[in-house]
Amino acid sequence: MPEVTGTEQAADPNRFSAEFGGSPLSGRITALEGNGGYMRVQFNASGPAEIAVGEEGVLELHDGARFRVAVVEALPDQESGSYRVKLVGRG
User: Fold this and answer.
1) pTM (2 decimals)?
2) Do the domain assignments include residue 64?
C-alpha cells in the first residue's frame, strides 16, 4: 500500500492508504454516515479510472487500523474519485 507519512497524518487524520484489485491507492475519508458502517471516500487523482460497484478492498487508516470495505456507489462527482463504501470487516 502507498505510504502516508507522519506529516501527512498529522495534517489530515482522515487520510488512508488502500488496495483494490491489487492496485495501491491513497485518499481520504470525506464523511462518516451514522449507523450501518457507511462512509464516503475520495481517492487521489493517481488512483484507478474507475472502481466497480461491489468491488472489495482494504483501507488502512492513519493509526494502522485495517478494514475491508465494499464499494456501494460511485458518487456523482466521480471524476474526483468519490465513492460510498460499506465496512464489511476488520483486517
Assistant:
1) 0.78
2) yes
Cβ contacts of residue 19 below 8 Å, gap of 6+?
Answer: 1, 25, 57, 58
Which residues of the chain carry a pLDDT beneath 50? 6, 9
At 91 the pLDDT is 74
Backbone torsions φ then ψ of 31, nearest 5 degrees: -165, 145
12: CATH = 2.40.10.10
Query: Is the alpha carbon torsion for 65, 71, 75, 80 positive or negative?
Result: positive
Spell out the residues 6+ positions from residue 16 whose beta carbon is closer than 8 angstroms to its own. 4, 26, 27, 28, 29, 41, 59, 60, 61, 62
- In angstroms, the CA 54 to CA 4 distance is 26
- The domain in which residue 15 lies consists of 6-90
Residue with cell 465513492: 83
Q: State which amino acid sits at residue 49.
A: A
Q: How far apart are CA 6 and CA 82, in angstroms?
A: 24
